Amino acid sequence: DAELITMITKIHAENYGVYGARKIWHELQRRGVRVARCTVERLMREIGLRGLLRDKTPRTTRPAAETDRPRDLVKRDFTATAPNQLWVADLTYVRTSVGWVYAAFVLDVFSRMIVGWQVATSLYTDLALDALKLAIWRRQNQGADLQGLVHHSDRGVQYRAIRYTQRLAEAGAVASVGSKGDSFDNAMAEAFNSLYKAELVRNKGPWRGLDDLEMATVEYIDWYNNRRLHGELGHVPPAEHEALHVMTQPVIAPLKTS
């Protein structure tokens, strides 16, 4: 068992120490190591390794006044059949040695990919807007057409600001907003916030301030998008899930004209 224990310990350490037996077993399978899941569970108990437990975290956005609120186009159906059909967005906060730091994220529902993010010391509109701008730039830079994309958020003032809705419209996206005071209406975005707080913020803190949290957030998102196994995706990372989707799409050859 010594060699297997070494591999389990390495995988656990490489993945922020958050993997439990199920994810470590799936990662071993991906690496061609055939072992029973019960064996992984037994060895992890013997060496004192365990996965990370998540706590619920409070909401951060402040509802905007009830003026021309966009409709809820999602109605808690957080499913998509391809990238860039549905994005969800939300904010969270982190206590540091010098005060609060806030983080905004934009997530693609199809793959759970974090497509946009920003970290700042203020909750003003620019925090959420900068995350949206990055998401739009990244996807369009990959050649994506965002026409008809649904962007879903809660009713926070940051997401209903004029500059934010204008940027959505410029990209051809449609805004969707959940109902008042109901976290289930933006459940997927809030679930990521919970994950971020558990796997990075509480797991690797305390934090000195904006700079070290921002650097750690960039590293975390790179891991989350490209290496973290997601049970909802069949235990593959978001980037791999999107790549597999592209490979299964038919290639349409241009028509030849005589």
UniProtKB/TrEMBL annotation:
Organism: Pseudosporangium ferrugineum
GO BP: DNA integration
Name by which UniProt lists this protein: Putative transposase
Purpose of the protein: Involved in the transposition of the insertion sequence.
Single annotated GO MF: nucleic acid binding
Integrase catalytic domain mapped to chain residues: 79-245
Record NCBIfam families: transpos_IS3 (NF033516)
